[in-house]
Write a structure and sequence with these properties.
With about 325 residues, this protein is of the alpha+beta class. The protein contains 9 helices and 9 strands. The strands form 4 sheets. Strands 3-4-5 form a 3-stranded antiparallel sheet, with no helix packed on it. Strand 4 and strand 5 form a beta hairpin.
Length: about 325
């Protein structure tokens, strides 16, 4: 997958030349994360000055939240100063902000533009991105939506589908899903149903943008978490989700292996959880339980070290 910075919306006069640094954000697409992040922000930083302009904040499912250990203290001390969005560049070292104010003597601007997906070696009707910057023409952002059955069932791309989840785990699940599809254990739906999924995704995004008062775009790879997660769980044959929640499988696991249930349900999400349960499509990994336990122990040790570090800083 090739990544190209999206610079189509920048108002930059051609006579000004400067060094540009691009940052690739992941746009969260679930409204739940917006409420969760707002709640965490308010509880962690209850005295954020109104002059910083952080409220009202753009929804987290449109604009990804800033995660940093240092930025708050740097702004609080005055070392860093939050400013509005850049409206346009007015000179070699000057900019005008969205609120009409200006700033001079600027050395570098970092554009948080996001990026567009592209597959340059696929041409014509095989190209999943015929319009740069638009959503790819793919089912589940993995299989090219081609009218020819043999083509759409064999031309697949990994790394173009994402949601708020550990990245390498998603890539592994995509590979397993494709293997199950090509082995015939997880047949694809009819072409019309695949096209409807794609149309529904576009409609879902249009509605989110319509109800959002901030100017924003989507990172094309991002998909609704619950829908994509359930599809991967069923297609891979992992059968993970049915073992947690309100089901007889969940109650059975809770009753027979309480420690494992609690680790999986409340601890760190170990990728080995995807390989723990036996099913008709795949075998379980015999080392999964030990790895889940090891991952949780590593997480607990890391959390203890971070707590010690925070406490030591308080005493300085």
């Amino acid at each position: 997958m090739d990544l190209f910075p999206d610079v189509t919306r920048l108002q930059v006069p051609t006579k000004f030349f400067f060094v540009e640094t691009y940052w690739h954000p992941f746009h969260l697409t679930v409204r739940f994360f917006d409420k969760l992040i707002q709640s965490l922000s308010k509880s962690s930083f209850p005295n954020t000055p109104a002059s910083w302009g952080f409220s009202p904040a753009p929804p987290a499912y449109i604009t990804n939240p800033l995660i940093s250990d240092d930025i708050y203290s740097q702004m609080e001390s005055g070392w860093a100063k939050p400013v509005p969005a850049v409206k346009r560049i007015t000179g070699p070292k000057s900019v005008e902000f969205a609120d009409g104010t200006t700033l001079d003597n600027i050395d570098t601007i970092v554009y948080c533009t996001g990026y567009d997906g592209k597959v340059p070696f696929l041409k014509g009707d095989l190209d999943p991105y015929p319009i740069p910057g638009e959503q790819g023409n793919m089912y589940r952002n993995m299989l090219v939506l081609h009218p020819d059955k043999a083509t759409r069932e064999s031309l697949a791309l990994v790394g173009h589908a994402a949601f708020p989840w550990p990245g390498f785990g998603i890539l592994e699940m995509q590979n397993i899903a494709l293997a199950q599809i090509w082995k015939g254990k997880s047949p694809l739906p009819p072409y019309e149903e695949m096209k409807k999924w794609h149309a529904d995704l576009l409609d879902y995004r249009r509605k989110l943008l319509k109800n959002n008062k901030f100017e924003s775009t989507f990172y094309p790879a991002m998909l609704p978490t619950a829908d994509q997660l359930h599809w991967l769980d069923q297609t891979t044959g992992a059968d993970l989700l049915s073992h947690f929640g309100w089901s007889w499988k969940a109650w059975k696991l809770w009753w027979q292996d309480r420690d494992l249930y609690n680790m999986c349900n409340s601890g760190v999400f170990s990728p080995s959880m995807w390989r723990f349960f036996e099913g008709p499509k795949r075998k379980a990994w015999s080392g999964a339980r030990a790895q889940i336990k090891a991952d949780n122990e590593a997480m607990e040790k890391g959390a203890a070290r971070r707590k010690e570090l925070v406490e030591s800083k308080k005493t300085i």
